[in-house]
What we know:
Elements: H1 2-26, E1 42-48, H2 53-66, E2 70-75, H3 79-87, E3 93-96, H4 102-110, E4 115-129, E5 137-138, H5 140-148, E6 165-169, H6 174-185, E7 195-197, H7 200-209, E8 213-218, E9 227-228, E10 230-231, H8 238-242, E11 249-257, H9 262-272, H10 274-282
Parallel strand pairs: 1-2, 1-3, 5-10, 6-7, 6-8
Antiparallel strand pairs: 3-11, 4-8, 4-9, 4-11
Helix pairs in contact: 3-4
Amino acid sequence: MKAKKWLVLALAAMLAFALVGCGGTTTEEPSGEEPAGEELTGSINVEGSDTMVNLGQAWAEVFQTENPGVMIAIKGGGSGTGIAALINGTIDFANASRQIKDEEKAEAEGKGITSFEIEVAKDGIAVVVNPGNGVTGMTLDQLGKIYRGEITNWKDVGGTDAPIVLLSRDSSSGTYEYFKEEVVGEDNEYAKEAKLLSSTQAIIDETKNNPNAIGYVGLGYLTPDVKVIEIDGVAASVETALDGSYVLSRGLYMYSNGEPADVMKAYIDWILGPGGQQIVTDQGFVPVAQ
């Protein structure tokens, strides 16, 4: 009986030792190390501004590399196309190089969509001509007369005797809308002779091949193949858009249905942070204030 009592006590002591040893190795975190966070997962569909399509693709590429569980699809088509898709509930973000119109906002609300605006970058609209064109600048008033068809020859703005070939984005573009309001005039129309092109790159390509062409593009699309002319004595650049001295400066926006949450919030927070805003600079646009 006495031997049985000693056996029970020995087994109890061994069990207690084993429990103390197991607790020490499974509950303590290694000194100085943070617990690993959960992997970000999900998919995001973005559609809209052609001005922002290269910027959007650059953002998506880096964000997906840093977060391999996230899939982001980027599509252009114009600001109006993107906002229409948001209103129809087929995308997560609409990229827009103009602010949403009151009628678009009302249409969205009628379908239960609450448009939420985030300014993600700034831009300047550069007026470009062929490098062989001798004109180096004009006033905003002269530019408006050219696009309304009231000035049709380069000699009337200091150039050679040659017809002006007008290039513009098509009406689905936010840049088209912005240029109409700021240059052509909200109550006026583009000259019927204006060639409406489907992309900003098409304007660059036409301008570099046509000595009489004039067009307008976002800063991110400028190349040495075209010449930027001054408007009211100031040329479009990152610096003049940032300090407000260039007259044709604007914001670039992303719109969602309500305030972004979960993976969409993580994406927007990253775009507005140092990594996303460095890409804005790398793409030739102007970062928003930090």
